[in-house]
Amino acid sequence: MDYIHLKDMQFYGYHGVLAAETTLGQRFRANVSLAVDMTMAGETDDLTYTVNYAEVYALCRDIVEGEPFKLIEALVVKIANVILTTYPEKVKGVRVELIKPDPPIHGYYKEVSVEVTRGDF
pTM higher than 0.90, yes or no? Predict the structure, then answer.
């Protein structure tokens, strides 16, 4: 299987359980990997045989910067499902990691993230 990776995409959203998270918003980062067959794209140099990663970026941006979710678990599942339903013939599997670099947790840590994998990966 071949893979397309979109790494460290950065967005601003209003997701969280606490009022401050949904009012003030916060930064989110996302990593998305798509399992695709790039054989025809590689042989023909034709975009129609692969997934346009600019479109995938826009899908992720629209979801993260759109409707608020309480849980980032729900948000990553939404991203994975939208990608799979948007490209049912091309994307065989997807892995989505959503990172909250600054969650409202007292203590020392680098970041908090949630990751899901769907389909063949």
Answer: yes
Tell me the C-alpha distance between 1 and 90, whole Å: 12
Active site amino acids: 100
Q: Please list, in sequence order, all residues whose beta carbon lies within 8 angstroms of the beta carbon of residue 80, skipping any fewer than 6 positions away.
A: 94, 95, 96, 116, 117, 118
Domain that holds residue 84: 2-119
Residues 60-76: tens digit of each pLDDT? 999 999 999 999 999 99
Closest-CA residue to 55 (of 75, 26, 34, 37): 34
Helix (H, G, I), strand (E, B) or coil at 31: strand
Predicted confidence at residue 31, as pLDDT, reads: 98
The whole-angstrom separation of Cα 73 and Cα 81 is: 12
Structural domain tally of the chain? 1
88: domain CATH number is 3.30.1130.10
